[in-house]
Amino acid sequence: MSAPAVPPPALYDQVRRLRQESPDGLPPGRGFDLPADFPADLGTDSPADLPSEPPETRLSRREMAGVVREALNPLPEDPATLHRRFAELGVRGRHRNLIRSAVATLPLPADEHATARALARQLTRTGSTVPAVTAGLALLTRLGEPEDVPYLSTLGLLRSLTGPAVQALDALDRRSAAVLWLVTSVSRGELRPLVRALGAGDDRAVRSELVAFRAEPRFLGATTARRIAEAARLPDLLAEHPADPALLARAARLLVRMGCASDDTTELLTYREAAAVYETVVTRAGLLPPTVEQHATLLSLALDLSSGPGALLDWPSGCRERLLASLGRQLAEPSWTATATTGLGPEDPAGFDPEDPAGFDPERPAGLDPEDPAGPGPERPADLDPEDPAEVARRLRVGWIRRTGRRPFTRPAVPDRGLRVEIVAGDPVDRTPVETRVLVDGRPLVPAVFAHGPAHSPEELLDEGLLRAGPEPRRVRLAEAWCGEGCCGALHVTIRRDGDQVVWEDWRRPPPPGSRGPAPELPVLRFDATAYDAEIARAEADRVWAWPARTVARLIKAGLVERPELLSRWDARRGWISTGHEEPDTAQVHFWYQPGLGAGRPEEDPLVFRWTVPDDGTPPEAQAAAALRRLAEEDPKSYSRVSGGTRRRAEELGYTWPFDD
Question: Which residues 6+ apart lie within 8 Å of 147 measured at CB?
Fold first, then answer.
C-alpha cells in the first residue's frame, strides 16, 4: 500500500520562505511564483499544466459559479471541510475570481461574523491551496481587522493571490495595499529604487527616491501615481518638509497624473487625500521655480479644478474656487508669464496680459503673430534642435501654455445652472487627448458617471453637430472606453427638443468597476433651449484651443467631406484624420484603399494607409489647401504607407507590410 500523499505546506509559510531567500525581501518583478512542485490543479492553472478534462464534463462559467456558491454555502466552520468541498466539486485555482464573487455576495448575518472571521484567519494562515486561501482573503475583505494586515501583505506577494490580498488591504490599510500593489505591479527599473524603499519602510529613502525617478507618462500611469501617493503617505511627507520645492513639485505631478484624461481619471477620485494635497500644492506654489515644466503642471491642475475630475472632489464650500483663483494669480505673475513668452523663464515678461482670454496682448513686442497664438515667434526659436526631446517638449508646452494659459480662469468655476461645454487640450508632453468636457451645473458629466474613458473630441461631438438639439431625437455617444465599446462599454444619451427645452435622457452606460449589477439609472436632464443653443454654438466656434497641425487636420477633413471625389478617384475613402498621438505637430490622414471602389465595385479586404503631413510653419489654411491639391493631383498611395489591413492583402497589391506579425 502506498503512503498517503503529504499535503503541501501552508502557502503563507511558503511565501515567508521565499521572502527570506530574496536578497531584499521583495519578489523579482511581478510577485513570487508558486514552487515548481506545487500541484497545478491547486494553483494558478497554466493551461499546459492542467490535467486533461473531457469536453463533455466541462462546465460553463455560469455553471461553475453555481458550483462555487454550493461549496461555500453554508460556510463551514473548519478549513478541512472547505478544502474537501472544493476538491470534491472540482473548484481549482483558476476559479479564484468566482470564489471572490461568491464570497462577496454570501449572506453573513452579524451573529456569524466572528465564526466567519475565525475561519478566514485559519484559511489564510494555514491554507495550502490557492482556492482555500482565496476564500479566506475574500472573507477578510468583508470582516478583516488590523491584526490581519501583516498576513495579507505577505500572502499578496504570491502572484496568484495579489488581487484578493490588495482588495482586502484596501478595506483595512490603504498604505499597505499600495505598497503591496507597487511591489507586485511595478517592474520598471526606474521605479524599483522607490519600490524597494517603500517595501523596506525607509522613510528617508522614500523621500529621496520619490523626487528622483523620472515622472514621464510612460513611467507613471494614473494608478501608479495614486498608489505611490498612498504608499509614501504624501500628506505626511509634505507636512514634514514644508519648504521642499522638489517634493512639492513631485506631489503636483502625482496629482496631474492621477487626473490625466489619457488614463483612468477615477484614480484621482479614489485617492482619499486628493483635496488635501491639492490645497497644500496650491498654497505653497510660490516655492516652485517659474519654469515651463512647472507652469505646465500648475496649469494642468487648474484645468482639473475648473472642469475636470478635480471638480468632483468633496470640496468644502468655496475652497475649490479659492484654489483656482490662487493658481490664476500665481500664473499671472511676471516671472511665470515669462515662461510663456520666451519659454526660458523670467527674463522676458513683455507683452503678457493676464486679462486676455488667450493670455497675450496683440500689441506685445516679443515677435509673436497676433493672428496665430501658436505662431512662429518664440515657440519655434531659430536655434531649436528638432532632435532634442527636451527642446521639443519645451516648444510644445510653450505653445500650449500660450493657447490655454488663461482659459481655466476666465470662466466661473461654478456657473449658473445649466449646460457648459469646454474644449480642453491638455499638456501635449503628457499626450493627453483633446476632450469636449460637458459640465452640468458646474460638474463635469463624463468622469462623474463613466469610469472607462474621457469625453470625445470636439471633432467628433461638435464639428459633426452631434450635440445640437434637432427636431428628431438623436442618440449620441459622449465617451467610449479606451479598450473599445465592445470591451468596457461607452456612455450614450438621447438628445431631443421638447418645446422650449432640450432634454437629455435614455442614458446607456456599463456598470461601474467592481459592481455586480446594472449601472444605476441617470436622471433626465432638461435645459432652456435658447441658452442651450447659444452654448453649443459658442463651443462649436471655439478654435482658440487648437494648435496649427490640429487645424490643418480639421481643414483637410472638411475638404474631403465636401469633395469625397478627391479620394474616390484613387479607389480610396476617408478614414480617421487628426493629429498624431506621438507627433502632435503632424496631421495624420488615414484612408481605406479598395480596388474598384471608385467605380462602385470594391473588392474585399481593404488596406489602410496613413499620410503624415508635418507642420511646416506656414498658415494652417495654406497647408490644408496644399494637401488637398496634392490629393487631387497625385495618387496618395505613392506618398503614404500601409498602416492596417493584412500582410497577405498588402503583398497581393504590391505594398510593403510594415509590421512584424
Answer: none
